[in-house]
Specification:
Layout: H1 2-10, H2 12-23, H3 35-51, E1 55-60, E2 67-72, E3 80-86, E4 106-108, E5 111-113, H4 121-138, E6 144-150, H5 160-166, E7 175-178, E8 190-195, E9 197-206, E10 212-213, H6 224-233, H7 256-264, H8 269-276, H9 289-295, E11 298-306, E12 316-317, E13 320-329, H10 335-349, E14 355-364, E15 367-368, H11 374-387, E16 392-395, H12 402-410, E17 414-416, E18 432-434, H13 435-453
Parallel strand pairs: 3-6, 3-7, 7-17, 8-16
Antiparallel strand pairs: 1-2, 2-6, 4-5, 5-18, 8-15, 9-13, 9-14, 10-12, 11-13
The structure holds ligand BES and manganese (II) ion (MN) (2 copies).
Length: 454
Amino acid sequence: MNRVIDFIELHRDRYLDELKAWLAIPSVSALSEHAGDVRRAADWCADHLRSIGMHNVKLIDTPGNPIVYADWLEAGDAPTVLFYGHYDVQPVDPLNLWNSPPFEATVRDGELFARGSSDDKGQVFMHFKAIEAHLKQNGRLPINFKLILEGEEEVGSKNLDPFIESQKDLLKADVVLISDTSMFDRGVPSLCYGLRGLAYFQIDVRGTNTDLHSGTYGGGVANPAIVLAQMLAQMKDRSGRVKIPGFYDAVRPLSDAERAEYKKLPFNERRYAKEIGAPKLYGEAGFTTLERTTGRPTFEVNGLLSGFTGEGAKTVLPAVAMAKVSMRLVPDQDPHKIGELFAAYVKEIAPRTVQVEVKAMHGGWPWMASLDNPFVQAAGRAIERGFGQAPVYTREGGSIPVVATFQRVLGIPSVLFGVGLPDDRIHAPNEKLDLANFYSGIISSAFLYEEFAK
Ligand code: BES
Ligand code: MN
Ligand code: MN
């Protein structure tokens, strides 16, 4: 193992240059103008995986973006790990808020700034380098390794579940490994044992067939912007509880034991509020901020659009109003069932003065792991060796819907070892990756493969 770690230490600078080259490809899956770049990012992965010695590297076409596959299966009876990550990234807007160009990765104060640095290219790249170090120094990996990288994670992974359903043999493994989550805090390495699910919708409200002069018509018809606002205001009550009937029916309550564990985590509400610039924290009554953001479901508005928003003033009655909304779900809420409850509630509260349409965008199941799994324990030991500190076990508020799919379709558990930081600004301007975490992450990953083999 020392040879492997020495190799990693020796090549640190090269790693950064290589990662910068991958980050320079703007693989934004949400924007069709980047379709070529998405493909180029996949090709880059495939070339890189070949260069580090992975076998059977190929792009597998889907109706959307290709899936990168690679394996190394010469470890005999040792367990087989299925690694999952994504090579697509979020859009970069608003561009003017970036302190350096999002696709020219820049190091400042030990952090690498670029779109995708933390979510998820940088974290995937840790494993490329851990694999490379094993293969270059020992000519082998301690475990059998299968790897898939998708290019549609940030837009709902539409083609991933069908791919997994149809490729059960190809993907057969003992455990899934993912690095696409965060540490609890700087200096607090973590293993994630829970993710929230998601149900995402667009609501369209139409009042009239065209925008109207607000003097001539104002007062005579319903204003779709106001109707939409009134409907959204009925989604939560003042104590932060979601008002959709049946929304909480399947929610697994937080046990006293789990709440006690939450309390042990080093979390400072005041510092948290200050960091994000919130004048005062707000959420469901009776729960702490950590519980609210990871162990409880929520309804949120993600975007709102209506009427005149340009410079100056324009007296107009908008013809339409639109909102993007989503619900984060916890075990055992079913995203389809929640979608039905939501649509029924919208229908119930929609006034007859407007036409309201609800469109489902995407969704995914919540997930929770059992901590007594030997692979989770092995990951804990690897992190302790790599970071010099045992990990804490956390639930995260974000979603990686495929984790539930792996459990359901392949029947295997996932280990979520992430080295992001809560302030990495993923999905936002100035996304960054902490380089110390990146290097400790490579070393932990190298240990992880060894620990998995034990
Ligand atoms: N890596 C994130 C998920 C994540 C974020 C996990 C923070 C833990 C902490 C992933 O790329 C992501 O953004 N997921 C989407 C899922 C959606 C597009 C289906 C999310 O959570 O919004
Ligand atoms: Mn991600
Ligand atoms: Mn993401």
